[in-house]
Amino acid sequence: MIWSAIPIQYSLRNLWVRKTTTLLTALGMALVVYVFAAVLMLEAGLRNTLVNTGEADNMVVTRQGTATEVQSSIDPLQASIVASLPEVASRIEPLASYETVVLVNLDKRETGRPSNLVIRGLNEAGRELRRQVTLVSGRAPRPGTDEVMAGLAASRQFVGLELGGSVRFAGRDWPVVGVFDGGGSGFDSELWADADVLRQSFRRASYSSVIVRLLDPTKAQAFADRVREDPRLPLQAKSEREFYAEQSETLSRFIKILGLTLTVIFSIGAVIGATITMQSAVATRVAEIGTLRALGFARQAILLAFLAEAIALSLVGGAIGLGLASLMQAIEFSTTNFQSFSELSFGFLLTPGIVIQALVFSILMGTVGGMLPAIRASRIAIVEALRAA
User: Fold this and answer.
1) Model confidence pLDDT, tens digit, residues 331-362
2) Are β-strands 172-181 and 134-138 bridged in parallel, bridged antiparallel, or unpaired?
3) Does this model's pTM top 0.70?
4) Dihedral (C-alpha) 18, 20, 25, 27: value to the nearest 10 degrees?
């Protein structure tokens, strides 16, 4: 029995001979891989944006049972108790930010329609706790004033949030004195104001959350346990990264279910297309298959040769699909975060893991689509094949 690479080389060269058929089938597979990769990239971009919002040594304290800061309420006395716990880092004062988070309706630039935007009231310590945030133009709001600063994404998307502009909510005008870069985090989609001014403007007696920095990040669980067990504190504490990662779960699940459903539907068509293409290749090369068998090539060699042809075809489609999907990284996507019901901007993110998953998926499609034609080719009898010649 001969097991040389000649049949495989022959089959791969046949893809080049049948350029038009190869290209059309590959493009069909490319569409499926493109959708598959784009879904994973969108979900990865969402998770990356929200996880990047958190710092490893920051903790978010909210009211027990609440999923977002908007829903939470913390009494000022409770907030001061949290800031005084031994795990909290301090300089002259504890590194703690008592924050008020509210939603306001502002008009979007593209549509002119209103959408929810997060307004975060925080102090200088609050800005210090966010190391990834940098001021790109203007300045930070002065304490005790109604000045605001906007994240880059919010500044681009909402009317009046450019440097020097102003927006109106809570019965007054708020001038925009600065624009900041949140480093690709969820803060890019927020508007920041002075904590006390914002709380008074919305007639809030309580805070939404308390953000603290720990002396030792490894003490996060000890801090969370202390908050939970303190009878004075009906509160819960989570690491900032964990807190924001949970914010992505509902939207992430929706994106995956919708996208993968479309992928399955499209992949059925792509597999059928690959099967038809390979069946046609077998039908037109019966005599050639017989010649190979007469030369001593085993049935298994013929099967592997045609299977390799189908997989190579799928890899061509996979490479094209990945190339198209990679272009999506230049696009910024904006949608409503189902957890907080506020506008959130994020982009497509192509990771090595997604590349591997997409290529494995394309190989799987090629294997499924090419298996039956390859089995048929390997079962063609030598006499029948030579008679067809």
Assistant:
1) 776 666 656 556 667 778 898 999 999 999 88
2) antiparallel
3) yes
4) 140
